């Protein structure tokens, strides 16, 4: 292992891998240290929706422009990453149909319909587009731009592309602590120490011990999500169906993802019968034919939650050479490109929209309370 890097990224999930890619592209000598395998934690449990519109209800002022920037970046990234890594990220067009079953559902979708990129479809138009959708739906908000990718492949592709551009990737290298010495940082890993000028903490929901170590008072809390990966004999859906935080996502590889439960403060990664039952009922409500699907496997992952649902992306309040990028909750796959670009711009001291800096800074709660 080389002993000196310009930037050390701790964590090789989708966020750390995307950051490494954007840094390596700028010829910044970068190393990624992951305690296990690249992408094997929360990233591997994600459905892969790039739901910039779908996830912005309630936060169109700041979250939406950031998420939309990230979503748009994927349109070019899918080819760029394939060229660098040979890994296809499974970019699937089609978009999301956000279904409404009641007048209340319909009312909740109203803020979305203000966006020119979202269209209201009546029940018969929805069934014309997707004949398996339950006829009980009153209609749907159709969001063609909320496409999807395969999360594992996307993470692998970011990491391999970063490597192709000169970054070093170290799996099975848990980082225990970080120490400042003569202006640089010594990063203590289970396999030895390395030195870096910049440290990026991208450890997802497992960030609490490093936060404590770096005297950051915020904590991440898990919101467990259980999902079913299922198969059909023939392609059933072209669009993602979404209702009430549950969804059925058709993937390019012939499987569908039925997700996901929302279990607060549960650190386990087990899947319960209750969770499976809930998902099957929700799936049948959206698409009655779901009852005939074959279960391929069940998965669970811990969404990295923050106190206000927004990620932490920014500088350590006392040290601009320590950067934080975690807490991406339900949207780490969607937000990975914009997060990688923002960390790159902090390091290169380039302009970043001030509202993004304020909205995502790690000490925002203390600033409001002061
Ligand atoms: C059921 C479910 C469905 C989801 N669906 C979507 C979706 O459709 N779209 C979307 O955008 N998002 C979705 N998400 C959210 C998304 O998965 C997360 O926001 C994202 O994976 C977070 O990525 P991360 O890189 O921050 O964390 P992780 O993927 O958890 O990566 C963190 C990495 O850091 C490493 N690490 C931790 N501590 C250390 C240490 N001390 N030293 C070295 N390495 C360390 C870990 O080994 C891990 O590999 C979903 C999540 C779940 C659970």
Automatic annotation (TrEMBL):
Pathway: Cofactor biosynthesis; thiamine diphosphate biosynthesis. The chain crosses the membrane at residues 7-24. It is an enzyme of class 1 (oxidoreductase). It comes from the Bacteria. It catalyses: glycine + O2 + H2O = glyoxylate + H2O2 + NH4(+). Pfam families: DAO. PANTHER family: GLYCINE OXIDASE, SARCOSINE DEHYDROGENASE-RELATED. This is glycine oxidase.
């Amino acid at each position: 292992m080389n002993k000196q890097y310009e930037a050390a990224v701790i964590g090789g999930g989708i966020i750390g891998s995307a950051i490494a890619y954007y840094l390596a592209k700028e010829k910044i000598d970068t190393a990624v240290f992951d305690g296990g395998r690249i992408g094997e934690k929360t990233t591997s449990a994600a459905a892969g929706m790039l739901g910039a519109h779908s996830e912005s209800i309630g936060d169109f002022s700041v979250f939406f422009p950031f998420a939309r920037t990230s979503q748009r970046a994927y349109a070019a990234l899918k080819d760029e990453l394939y060229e660098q890594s040979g890994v296809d990220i499974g970019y699937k067009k089609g978009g999301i149909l956000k279904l409404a079953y009641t007048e209340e559902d319909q009312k909740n979708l109203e803020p979305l319909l203000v966006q020119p990129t979202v269209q209201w479809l009546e029940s018969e138009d929805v069934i014309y587009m997707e004949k398996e959708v339950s006829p009980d739906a009153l209609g749907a908000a159709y969001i063609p731009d909320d496409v999807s990718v395969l999360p594992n492949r996307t993470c692998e592709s970011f990491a391999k592309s970063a490597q192709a551009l000169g970054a070093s990737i170290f799996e099975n290298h848990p980082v225990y602590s970080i120490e400042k010495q003569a202006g640089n940082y010594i990063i203590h890993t289970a396999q030895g120490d390395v030195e870096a000028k910049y440290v990026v903490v991208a450890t997802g929901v497992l960030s609490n011990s490093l936060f404590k170590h770096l005297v950051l008072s915020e904590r991440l809390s898990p919101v467990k999500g259980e999902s079913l990966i299922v198969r059909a004999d023939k392609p059933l859906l072209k669009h993602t169906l979404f209702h009430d935080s549950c969804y059925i996502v058709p993937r390019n590889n012939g499987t569908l993802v039925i997700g996901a439960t929302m279990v607060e403060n549960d650190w386990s990664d087990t899947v319960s019968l209750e969770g499976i039952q809930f998902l099957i009922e929700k799936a049948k409500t959206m698409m009655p034919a779901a009852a005939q699907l074959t279960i391929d496997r069940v998965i669970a992952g811990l969404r990295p939650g923050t106190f206000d649902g927004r990620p932490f992306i920014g500088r350590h309040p006392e040290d601009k050479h320590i950067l934080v990028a975690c807490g991406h909750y339900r949207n780490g796959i969607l937000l990975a490109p914009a997060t990688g670009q923002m960390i790159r711009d902090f390091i290169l001291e380039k302009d970043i929209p001030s509202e993004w800096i304020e909205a995502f800074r790690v000490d925002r709660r203390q600033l409001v309370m002061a």
